[in-house]
Amino acid sequence: MMIIEDAKVEVKKKTVLPPVKKKMTETKEYVGNVTWPTMEELEVPNEIKAQYEDWYKVGMNRQRQKAHGDEIPGVRYPDLIITGAKKCGTTALKIFMNYHTWFQDTPGERHFFNRPTNWAKGYQWYHDEMPLTFKDEICYEKTPDYFDRPFIPERMSKLENAKNIKFVHVLCDPVRRSFSHFLHMFTVQQVGQWGVGGPQPGFEFLQENFADITKEEAFEKTVELAFENLLGKEKDIDSMSDDEIRAAVADYFTRWDLKPGSPGRVFPLRIPDAVLTGSLYSTHINTYLHYFTQEQMLYLDATELIENPGMSLRRVADFAGVPQLITEENFYFDDEKDAHVCSPLNTNAIVAHVSSCKLFLELTNAHRRLENFYSCSIPISGYFCMKPPVESARESFCLGSSKGRSKDKSLPVELKRRIRKFFNPFVKDLETKFTGDNYDHWDW
After folding, report:
1. Which of 55, 132, 235, 340 lies at a C-alpha separation of 20 to 30 Å from 104?
2. pTM of the model
3. Which whole number is the average pLDDT over 217-226?
4. Tens digits of per-residue pLDDT, 53-96?
5. Contacts of 1 (CB under 8 A, 6+ apart)
6. Does the annotation list 180 as a binding residue?
7. Does 352 sit behind a cis peptide bond, omega within 30 degrees of 0 on the bond before it?
8. Per-residue pLDDT tens over the stretch 26-39
């Protein structure tokens, strides 16, 4: 059920992080000659070693076990969930977190709360999908489809640890997010989920209506169709006030729950509406705050994640209550190249999810390339490299330059102005009711 009433919460105050303390973590180089603990060195009983045989085959897991003595790792519901927003860099965040040894996840995305096939398996299935973790580590998962489904916060509130779970919402320029989402639908939805089956409904709609025009022209027509659905066919957005836009959208969402076949029923998760509704951040955060508290929320600006990933990783570590192993000192910058802020995947837990931009990581000691994909839509000028913390036992790497869905693309100024006018009241609400941050820099 869609909740329209405002949640009664205090506006969040963004934490001002102090300068990085020197020598918080080493940046010693590893060059493929790490010596991992042997099974004989571990203090856990032999039956535990046999039970978790595959897990202990990974050297990093044996190192974690040795550091935790005779404590036996266990499975539990996640302590932290990255919810979205989609196309705002959630996978990039997950990749960076994979280099922090206190954060533990599993490859890919769980999609438990949003996909009927997974939801039908029950909470125990979700519990069992989580990785083995120790008590002082953070078990987490990332599924950006959780952000804009109004029924998901209520389902999450039924978790045994609901009062303690923490959420990271990554937010980015809503205009650019909408365009990137549109391009994602046009490309990724040509086949079924996980590459199995025929085209998905979003692609079929786009292919049927806009196959013979440019993506930019198709996006403009899609936006105009979404405006008609969200605001009313007779409404001109340029003649509407902020309050009128809010009221029209609120009325739109009241028709989400109508029975199938009912006149006026709306489909905010389907194209064309989805390209805009996914960027209504204040609307979706408001739903979460009817079930959870502000203290359980971290609102991460994707601009900072892209331009200063070290600071964003410090914010996440502070929020989760773990040491700041990854800071600004773990990154350096080559301004002679143009690149996205991207990062190699955790080679112990390769993310099997296909999304926005292609990444090539040079594995210099193996003289080979690892190719994978992830979401990263905000281009900057320069080339980031990272020296992972010594605790991760990883080599330094440089972030591959590549093309994101919306990089090197542009939209008509007038179209962007109209879309931004639509989003303006919701960005204001985001600032004044929830995050307490300022988003004037969202001006793509």
Report:
1. 340
2. 0.83
3. 93
4. 999 999 999 999 999 999 999 999 999 999 999 999 998 899 88
5. 150, 151, 154, 257
6. yes
7. no
8. 444 444 567 899 99
Cα–Cα distance for residue pair 114/145, rounded to 1 Å:
7
Domains of the chain: residue spans and CATH: 40-173+285-307 (3.40.50.300), 180-276+420-435 (no CATH)
Which residue, 226, 228, 274, is CA-closest to 85?
274
Based on its alpha-carbon atoms, the radius of gyration of the chain, rounded to whole angstroms, reads 22
Instruction: Pull the structure tokens for residue 183.
Output: 């391009």
Active site residues: 87
Residue type, 405: R
